[in-house]
Amino acid sequence: MILGITGTPGTGKKSVAPIVAKRMGVPCVSLNDVAESYHLVKAKSGDVDVDRLRPRLQRDLPRDAVVYGHLLPYVLGSRVASEVVVLRCEPGTLKERLRARGYEPWKIVEDVEAELIGVVSSDAFDTYGREKTWEVDTTRTTPRRAAATVSKIVEHAPRRAPRIDWTADYDSGAKLRLLLSTDEK
């Protein structure tokens, strides 16, 4: 079984995936680590050559594993993934998480906007379909609790919750400007 965990940067993939992998007793594979090991990360931009990563990943992937990274929908095919969980985080909280990590202001805005409109989530649903794709809100939970939720999804495939939509919370120009500003406030 290949479980994919994806989401916008800052949603908790690096914290949650190893816990889930340990519970499942399988290896945990970081897409970033695989890309770095093959020297597929461009030095200046930090972008990953997904066209070259895709075949290497699928060739080297263990039979059973938890694979995680924000690039998952672009490098791991639908036939390979058994289930995919998209970690989501309320955009204002995500902004604070990224700021605390020292992200550049332009990168914070880019990632917060992507989370607001659900870029990674939409791409995961498009790639893997509704039958294989789940969302988990990590805004107000610990990595252990989020991992427990992911484990329950894998074990029990619970009744599907509605897709997460942050846009209703940012229903005015003023709220959007504040969210997407680069001010340190």
Question: Layout of helices and strands, plus pairs?
Answer:
Layout: E1 2-7, H1 13-24, E2 28-30, H2 31-37, H3 50-60, E3 65-68, H4 72-75, E4 83-88, H5 91-100, H6 105-117, H7 119-128, E5 133-137, H8 143-156, H9 173-179
Parallel strand pairs: 1-3, 1-4, 2-3, 4-5
Helix pairs in contact: 1-8, 5-6
Strand fraction equals 5-15%
Question: Mind telling me the CATH class?
Answer: Alpha Beta
The global form is: globular
Biggest sheet architecture: 5 strands, parallel
Describe this structure in words.
- There is one protein chain.
- This protein is an alpha/beta fold.
- It has one domain (2-179): Rossmann fold (3-Layer(aba) Sandwich).
- The chain has helices at residues 13-24, 31-37, 50-60, 72-75, 91-100, 105-117, 119-128, 143-156, 173-179, and strands at residues 2-7, 28-30, 65-68, 83-88, 133-137.
- It is globular and about 50 Å long.
- The relative contact order is 0.19.
Can you describe this structure in just a few lines?
With 185 residues, the chain is an alpha/beta fold.
List keywords for this structure.
single chain; 185 residues; alpha/beta; Rossmann fold; five-stranded parallel beta sheet; 9 helices; 48% helix; globular
